[in-house]
Write a structure and sequence with these properties.
single chain, 350 residues, ADH-like_C, Putative NADPH-dependent curcumin reductase, GroES-like_sf
Length: 350
């Protein structure tokens, strides 16, 4: 029987080196590729209770700017300092295990030590993926967050008019589609460019899109949702949250899931997202605003995976994403995400 402390691959079979992306300098304004460096480092060796994962894909996401700015108290992830490797959701293959418990060699797993070729991950922090989704990369979709917010926090009902701010990003590109599958009668999104707006209505099922900078948001929302909003999936905050409150119907439910107005503002540090709203509107309309964080709930996660897999296979939902090839391209991909140059989820493929 294998010793519980010995890796299931011999030392000669284990990788000797790994590459990873590190923070080279605290960004001044929005991060650029020059703020990061790709370095070669000795490959990690899994200790007791750990597995060694060769990453195949990892997610490039704007919320990293908050961590580079020092983080926010109460957030689930620590801040990033100069010299630290970046991290985030990843999908990879187990190549060694230091015990008999947990994922086996050859299994595909997800975990949170992306931005590197090899990661030693506690077995308990890995999730074996199986074949519930038609493509492993779809496990990097932000759909579980959107599904939780739209079923548990804002509770979309049949016939609702739903507004999704930041509707072309990794969250929003799925949130609008999920709202439709949950029974929404009209789905409106927002974005920052006309070309994204065209794709949102042509490919993602949005009925209308308001475009930041194309006129007053309140006027655009009044035209896009003349009967008002029942549900708001707010991924932005700022003036978009304020405009959505103005368009809210009595009893509207707001799920606050992101703060891109602060994270993508070059004049701010990425750790605050101030907004001024009219509290009279909250009171008189009976509006509910609830912040939401995706819980660690294996049963609910499994429910989402089953529904998402079914929707993907039937074509009722698509997973908009762009794949960037290779570790060296990752810093530039992050810079482009910060500047809104992609639609959907951006994934680095190793």
């Amino acid at each position: 029987m294998m010793s519980s402390s010995a890796p299931s691959a011999t030392p000669a079979e284990l990788p000797r080196v790994s590459r990873e992306v590190r923070l080279a300098a605290v960004p001044q304004g929005l991060p650029t590729a020059a703020d990061f460096t790709v370095v070669e480092t000795p490959a990690p060796v899994p200790g007791p209770g750990e597995v060694l994962v060769r990453n195949r894909f990892f997610h490039v996401f704007a919320a990293l700017r908050t961590l580079m700015g020092g983080g926010v108290e109460g957030a689930p992830f620590p801040p990033l300092g100069v010299g630290d490797p970046l991290f985030g959701a990843a999908v990879g293959e187990v190549v060694a295990a230091a015990g008999d418990d947990g994922p086996r060699v050859g299994e595909t797993v997800s975990h949170w030590l992306g931005w590197r070729e090899y990661a030693a991950v506690p077995a308990a922090a890995c999730r074996a993926l199986g074949e519930v989704l038609p493509d492993p990369v779809a496990h990097l979709a932000a759909g579980w967050t959107a599904y939780h917010a739209l079923t548990r926090t804002a509770e979309v009902r049949t016939g609702d008019t739903v507004f999704v701010s930041g509707g072309a990003g990794s969250l929003g590109s799925l949130a609008g589609q999920i709202a439709r599958q949950l029974g929404a009668g009209r789905v409106v999104g927002s974005t920052g460019s006309a070309w994204k707006a065209e794709r949102m209505t042509a490919e993602l099922g949005y009925d209308a899109v308001v475009v930041r900078g194309a006129g007053p948001l309140a006027e655009q929302l009044a035209k896009a949702a003349p009967d008002g909003l029942d549900v708001v999936f707010d991924n932005v905050g700022g003036d978009q949250l304020r405009a959505a409150l103005g368009a809210a119907r009595a009893g509207a439910r707001f799920a606050l899931v992101g703060a891109l107005s602060g994270q993508l503002d070059p004049e701010l540090g990425g750790t605050t997202a101030p907004v001024e709203i009219d509290s009279f509107a909250l009171i008189l309309k009976g509006v509910t605003l609830r912040g939401t964080r995706t819980p660690e709930d294996p049963r609910a996660q499994a429910e989402w995976d089953e529904r998402f897999g079914g929707w993907l296979r039937s074509g009722k939902v698509v997973f908009p994403h762009e794949r960037v090839a290779g570790m060296d391209a990752a810093p530039r991909a992050l810079e482009e995400v910060m500047r809104g140059r992609h639609l959907g989820t951006v994934v680095v493929e190793l």
